[in-house]
Design a protein that fits this description.
It contains 19 helices and 11 strands. It is an alpha/beta fold. The protein folds into 2 domains: 103 residues, 2-Layer Sandwich (Nonspecific Lipid-transfer Protein, Chain A), CATH 3.30.1050; 336 residues, Rossmann fold. The strands form 2 sheets. Strands 7-6-5-8-9-11-10 form a 7-stranded mixed beta sheet, sandwiched between helices. A 4-stranded mixed beta sheet has the order 2-1-3-4. The longest helix is centred in the C-terminal third of the chain and has 20 residues. 45% of the residues are buried.
Length: 450
């Protein structure tokens, strides 16, 4: 098996440097020697066999089971090296064939009927709530942050400093890594695009732990309905709304978007569309068009792929997001066009999620002992692999985040994008007073979650 592994890695790793060893065999090195060297060890021949037969699934499982040990560099470095080489055209034939097979049958894996959607959501989001409190910001934003003004190049230093456009520190920036400020900026950026006015009815599809809905209620004066399929998230959201005195203004429900019949002035969905599944794209936008007012505005924030439509990595499907799928813009836009909605704005966030994930992973590792009190070593390695693989997918494997603004009428939003910056400035001014009262609530809920 050692010879087969050597042959496969030589075909794959042309750029960079990777040293591998199997059991008691001497190590060998592949690549051109450029860049930092990475070294890994396979515990036995069985681990090599599993990797060669199904690398997309087996690599994560071998790391979880400690059948692969990183001797130099970490699992993120290994994944980055493999992705860079594969996407430069060095992909192995077995990997290409298995991916073509998955692409052909992807629709069958994504038939997310209501009952299946609830099970899929519970698989990931109904884990012990203390876990997410360890690495997310106090508002528990579990989606891509928006880094307004990075004072260092992305990837240089996880502790880069953020500043507002006037050079002053952003509001609510207790964390040295800047993540809290960037998550606040994400909510502000979305709210600015939505142009929410006091008293308007807003629907938040996939409301998570309630942060976006509470922001729109508190800062914009909206009446918000947040819907989720996670019982854990629902409980936290309702507790937060009550603690902030917003229970009469924000209503959180355990509801599937397909059952809605009310009409809303604004619709927002952040980080939920990835769980819809390709067979349901048309239904999602048809339903959104049905419940959006004629002069309404919708903002969809979702992970996307820069390449044509594909399929979900089998390890991610099995262990992290069953039923999940990252869409290509081409298939999303087709469904939008058929729904009768019109696209009024598209923005692509490229490395923002890579930086978000990098910070999450650093925080996750810093709280390792607490994770192991709740779960075991295998779970820690599973979640570590998920965060590392996700970060490197945004850096090297064509993943990005898109924000699509939608409406039914062309005049629903201004004709130029200048209003976004003006709205952000106005919201930033309001945050200084409104959000200062939130910190105590968030901290107490954070401590309760821990």
């Amino acid at each position: 098996m050692e010879k087969l592994l050597r042959f496969a890695l030589k075909r794959l790793i042309r750029s960079g440097s990777l040293t591998a060893s199997v059991a008691t065999h001497p190590p060998f090195t592949v690549g051109d020697g450029s860049g930092p060297s990475i070294a890994m060890h396979f515990r036995n021949n069985r681990a090599v066999r599993r990797l060669l037969l199904n690398p997309d699934l087996a690599l994560g499982e071998l790391y979880m089971d400690a059948d692969i040990e990183m001797l130099k560099g970490d699992i993120g470095d290994l994944l980055a090296l493999a992705m860079r080489n594969y996407n430069y055209g060095n992909g192995l034939l077995p990997i290409k064939l298995t991916r073509l097979w998955r692409d052909a049958f992807r629709f069958f894996a994504q038939f997310n009927f209501a009952s299946r959607s609830r099970r899929n959501v519970a698989h990931h989001y109904d884990l012990d709530g203390r876990l997410y409190a360890l690495f997310l910001d106090p508002d528990r934003q579990y989606s891509c942050a928006y880094f307004e003004n990075i004072q260092a190049e992305p990837g240089d230093d996880p502790s880069f400093i953020l500043a507002s456009k006037d050079g002053e520190a952003l509001v609510n920036t207790p964390a040295s890594d800047g993540l809290d400020a960037a998550q606040l900026a994400k909510k502000r950026h979305i709210a600015a695009k939505l142009q929410v006015k006091p008293g308007q009815k807003v629907l938040d599809i996939g409301s998570g732990w309630g942060g976006m809905a509470l922001y729109l209620a508190q800062l914009c004066g909206a009446k918000v309905t947040g819907i989720t399929l996670s019982k854990e998230q629902l409980t936290v959201s309702q507790e937060r709304a009550a603690a902030l005195g917003l229970s009469n203004q924000v209503n959180f429900n355990l509801t599937d978007y397909r059952t809605l019949s009310d009409t809303f002035d604004r619709i927002v969905s952040v980080g939920m569309f990835e769980h819809v599944g390709a067979p349901w794209f048309q239904n999602f936008f048809d339903q959104s068009a049905k419940v959006l007012a004629d002069d309404g505005v919708m903002l969809l924030h979702s992970i996307g792929r820069m390449c044509p439509p594909g399929s979900t990595n089998p390890w991610i499907t099995k262990y992290i997001f069953p039923g999940g799928y990252i869409p290509a813009l081409s298939e999303v836009l087709k469904a939008i066009e058929r729904s009768g909605l019109i696209v009024t704005d598209i923005e692509i966030l490229r490395l923002h999620y890579a930086e978000t994930l990098k910070t999450w992973r650093a925080r996750f590792h810093a709280r390792r002992a607490e994770v192991l009190e709740m779960f075991d070593e295998r779970f820690f390695r599973m979640f570590d692999f998920y965060l590392a693989a996700s970060e490197m997918s945004f850096r090297h494997d064509g993943m990005m985040v898109f924000q699509i603004q939608l409406a039914k009428r062309q005049d629903a939003v201004p004709l130029t994008r200048d209003y976004i910056g003006r709205n952000e400035a106005a919201l930033s001014f309001r945050e200084k007073d409104a959000l200062s009262s939130n910190r105590g609530v968030n901290q107490s809920l954070q401590q309760a979650g821990e």
